[in-house]
């Protein structure tokens, strides 16, 4: 067939070619229109459909306009540099400074407190002050009436927890829990709605709140602060949300790829500031939080952690709490230990690892009994009930089982004599109740006392340490998973320290002639408990060494990590974070190693077939129909080839994202093309790109910054398409009837996708191993991966949801069927080939 005459498309912003009539969704998909969407909704409803969890665009779009933009940006302006690197380092320093200020326990966060008002300030202000006052209240009132003291203490605790839970349930639901799990999910490529919103950050601020989430939220907020929108002074045809101030767009750090790097650094700084462990924070982000790592991210994380630790240490010089550096530092424990003590450390680590696995197992069972997230008042009652139980344990256990001991003489680890730490409770003057002291005090101070236990005569008897361990584990398990913005890192350390000290005193009784230090076993117990619960390794070693200042005890700490991880892994398959990720049905987390379930599968087994595609130039009417009837976020772009070429048909030439189509529709970049023509000249390669088109390409990369910034899933919902249709009808007088082809001129309103589509999306053949697909997808941070045949025709598309479904369900039987069908199709294609050359190519014969 002769090639038709070329025609040049002329539009307000672009010059290109068109093919309006060849796109036919029914030709590409034999099912009726909208069948793909119906098939998607026929699958079991998962959490992402309810909460709007979508994938992030870590893979940049390499379009024609982007290539021109990159060439323009090569012009250096400041001593050979553009200034972007300096800006990134400056933002990193600011993140570290803000994180350090947020960790301070008293008055270092007035700016954040002012945002949330008096209630938020009370919640976020000094935990040490509140605990000290509550302990003082208990001591003063328990001497008069135990019941009145209990009621007053419980009432005040319920009031505080009600405020915190109401903020979580009714204002910032993503602030519930530790937050580390969802930080991991976000850095893995899942967009969590409202997770980094300012309300979530305010609800989280406080020492007990997980600093990993706080640091990540601060980093996210810093990246959102770049770029400004012009005021809509005139009623222009352009949407004001899509036009950017050129001076404000030099550094677009709000794209997903750059935000990922800053959030990794912020998460590291949060943990570093919480424990005074800058190196530990970097390693924790590398080992646990981040899925993508590089030398550049490592340096930024180290700078961010250093700034956070230094700022907090400087602030605490004139505050009442010397928490950093080394928030759990101690000085009384003797550094010496012998090699023959290592078997005892291993025994302590074994039992602590068992306790860590036990916590995960019981939590998995208990979590199924909790009220659903939609039953908010039931969750409020649950939190209040657990608070009352906790207060009852704090009051009754010391009364029934506590021991009255003489207040020890000598300085505390910080060199001062703190008589307020020892709680007398019902004991005589000059004595203290050991269980009451451990239960009513700050966990950090209690751990410092446990770490300092040495010699035969110490502050806490063996039986009382065992009781304290059991009570902490009980309260830990029932509170883990409630609607509160608290984590499980510190409770795990406290339970492990108490258990380790208990084991140390037992070993002292068994081996009276040995110089056994219970405090050293407390350090080993804390480390082993963390290893059993979280299954981390190197980062926990460094965190414990930096946080406690116990560099002399690094060998026992390493033994604790290795032994506890090995024991816990053989009892329960996953750590706390991995188990939480498995319970979140809408979060598709991709681990570093491909699962064994994919070993026998290929790309054709896990892909979604019947892909909805677009031509390079597509009628606006058809784009609106597809966007209205589906929630897909990626569409392959095809080019029609003539029959004279080998393998004629629809060739895969690019990929266009949903938000790109929405922005093109919103801006009205339409062209009237002849629907009877199939091929047209595309001259954008030779001509300079208009400045307005460069701004539009930048707006595409910043689309989610100004369209539902914390709920990008709304861009995939029908109301967004309806809004654009209404704007087209109002501003451009373009109704759906006007988009139909003109019967006389055969002109149709269309979009030219070629300047903005991704020209080089990654693809795999249908025979590619599913495990290799997994590695490519996870390593490169992809959102879509197209599957093509030998003629570069799209036969399917793979998303992280497809990989997760294949991993969960397995397709061994389907794989065998596909393998048989593939062999049959290859033989049939070979038999129908016109030449032996084609047959040789098909089977890779010489």
Automatic annotation (TrEMBL):
It comes from the Eukaryota. Residues 607-672, 757-815 form the CBS domain. Keywords: CBS domain, Chloride, Ion transport, Membrane, Repeat, Transmembrane, Transmembrane helix, Transport. GO terms for cellular component: membrane. Pfam families: CBS (PF00571), Voltage_CLC (PF00654). The chain crosses the membrane at residues 78-101, 107-124, 145-172, 262-285, 297-315, 342-362, 383-401, 465-482, 494-511, 523-543, 550-568. Residues 1-36 are annotated as: Disordered. GO terms for molecular function: chloride channel activity; transmembrane transporter activity. Its main location: membrane. It is found in: Membrane. It is a multi-pass membrane protein. Belongs to the chloride channel (TC 2.A.49) family. This is Chloride channel protein.
């Amino acid at each position: 067939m002769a090639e038709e005459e070329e025609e040049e498309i002329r539009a307000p912003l672009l010059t290109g070619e068109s093919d309006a009539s060849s796109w036919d969704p029914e030709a590409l998909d034999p099912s009726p229109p909208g069948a793909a969407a119906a098939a998607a909704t026929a699958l079991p409803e998962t959490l992402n459909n309810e909460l709007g969890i979508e994938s992030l665009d870590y893979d940049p779009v390499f379009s024609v306009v982007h290539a021109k933009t990159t060439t323009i940006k090569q012009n250096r302006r400041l001593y050979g540099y553009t200034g972007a690197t300096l800006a990134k380092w400056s933002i990193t320093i600011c993140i570290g400074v803000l994180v350090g200020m947020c960790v301070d326990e008293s008055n270092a966060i007035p700016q954040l407190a002012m945002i949330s008002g008096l209630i938020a300030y009370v919640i976020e202000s000094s935990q040490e002050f509140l605990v000290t006052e509550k302990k003082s209240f208990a001591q003063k009132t328990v001497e008069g009436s135990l019941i009145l003291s209990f009621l007053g203490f419980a009432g005040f605790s319920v009031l505080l927890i009600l405020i915190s839970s109401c903020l979580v349930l009714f204002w910032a639901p993503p602030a519930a829990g530790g937050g580390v799990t969802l930080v991991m999910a976000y850095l893995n490529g899942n967009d969590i709605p409202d997770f980094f919103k300012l309300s979530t950050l305010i609800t989280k601020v406080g020492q007990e709140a997980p600093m990993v989430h706080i640091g990540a939220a601060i980093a996210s907020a810093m990246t959102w602060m770049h770029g400004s929108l012009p005021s809509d002074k005139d009623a222009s045809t352009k949407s004001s949300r899509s036009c950017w101030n050129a001076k404000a767009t030099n550094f677009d750090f709000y794209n997903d790829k750059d935000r990922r790097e800053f959030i990794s650094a912020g998460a590291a700084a949060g943990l570093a500031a919480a424990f005074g462990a800058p190196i530990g924070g970097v390693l924790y982000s590398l080992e646990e939080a981040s899925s993508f790592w590089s030398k550049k991210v490592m340096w930024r994380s180290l700078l961010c952690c250093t700034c956070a630790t230094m700022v907090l240490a400087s602030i605490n010089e004139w505050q009442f709490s010397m928490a950093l550096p080394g928030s759990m530092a101690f000085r009384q424990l003797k550094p010496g230990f012998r090699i023959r003590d290592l078997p005892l450390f291993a025994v302590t680590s074994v039992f602590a690892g068992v306790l860590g696995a036990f916590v995960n197992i019981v939590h998995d069972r208990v979590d199924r009994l909790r009220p659903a997230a939609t039953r908010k008042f039931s969750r409020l009652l649950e939190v209040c009930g657990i608070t009352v139980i906790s207060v009852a344990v704090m009051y009754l256990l010391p009364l029934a089982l506590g021991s009255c001991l003489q207040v020890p003489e000598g300085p505390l680890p910080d060199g001062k004599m703190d008589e307020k730490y020892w709680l007398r409770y019902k004991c005589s003057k000059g004595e203290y109740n050991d269980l009451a002291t451990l239960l009513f005090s700050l966990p950090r101070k209690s751990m410092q006392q446990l770490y300092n236990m040495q010699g035969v005569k110490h502050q806490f008897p063996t039986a009382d340490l065992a009781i304290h361990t059991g009570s902490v584990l009980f309260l830990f398990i029932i509170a883990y998973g409630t609607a509160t913005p608290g984590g499980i890192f510190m409770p795990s350390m406290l339970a492990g320290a108490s258990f380790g000290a208990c084991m140390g005193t037992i070993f002292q009784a068994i081996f009276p002639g040995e110089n056994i230090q219970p405090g050293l076993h407390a350090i080993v117990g804390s480390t082993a408990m963390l290893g059993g619960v979280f299954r981390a390794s190197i980062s926990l070693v460094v965190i414990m060494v930096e946080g406690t200042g116990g560099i002399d005890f690094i060998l026992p700490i390493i033994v604790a990590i290795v032994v506890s991880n090995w024991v816990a892994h053989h009892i329960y398959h996953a750590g706390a974070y991995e188990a939480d990720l498995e319970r979140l049905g809408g979060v598709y987390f991709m681990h570093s190693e491909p699962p064994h379930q994919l070993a026998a599968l290929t790309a054709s087994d896990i892909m979604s077939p019947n892909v909805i595609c677009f031509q390079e130039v597509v009628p606006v009417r058809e784009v609106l129909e597809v966007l209205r009837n589906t929630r897909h976020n990626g569409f392959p772009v095809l080019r029609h080839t003539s029959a004279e070429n080998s393998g004629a048909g629809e060739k895969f030439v690019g990929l266009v994202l949903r938000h790109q189509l929405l922005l093109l529709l919103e801006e009205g970049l339409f062209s009237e093309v002849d629907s009877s023509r199939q091929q047209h000249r595309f001259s954008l390669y030779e001509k300079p790109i208009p400045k307005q088109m460069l701004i539009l390409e930048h707006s595409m990369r910043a689309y989610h910054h100004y369209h539902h910034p914390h709920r990008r899933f709304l861009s995939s919902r029908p109301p967004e398409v309806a809004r654009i249709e209404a704007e087209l009808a109002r501003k451009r007088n373009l109704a759906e009837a006007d988009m139909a082809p003109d019967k006389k001129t055969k002109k149709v309103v269309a979009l030219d996708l070629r300047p903005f589509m991704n020209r080089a999306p990654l693809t795999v053949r249908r025979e590619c191993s599913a495990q290799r697909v997994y590695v490519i997808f996870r390593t490169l941070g992809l959102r879509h991966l197209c599957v093509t045949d030998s003629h570069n025709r799209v036969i399917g598309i793979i998303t992280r949801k497809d990989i997760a479904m294949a991993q969960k369900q397995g397709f061994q039987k389907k794989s065998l069927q596909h393998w048989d069908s593939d062999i049959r199709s290859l033989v049939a294609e070979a038999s129908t080939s016109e030449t032996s050359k084609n047959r040789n190519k098909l089977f890779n014969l010489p």
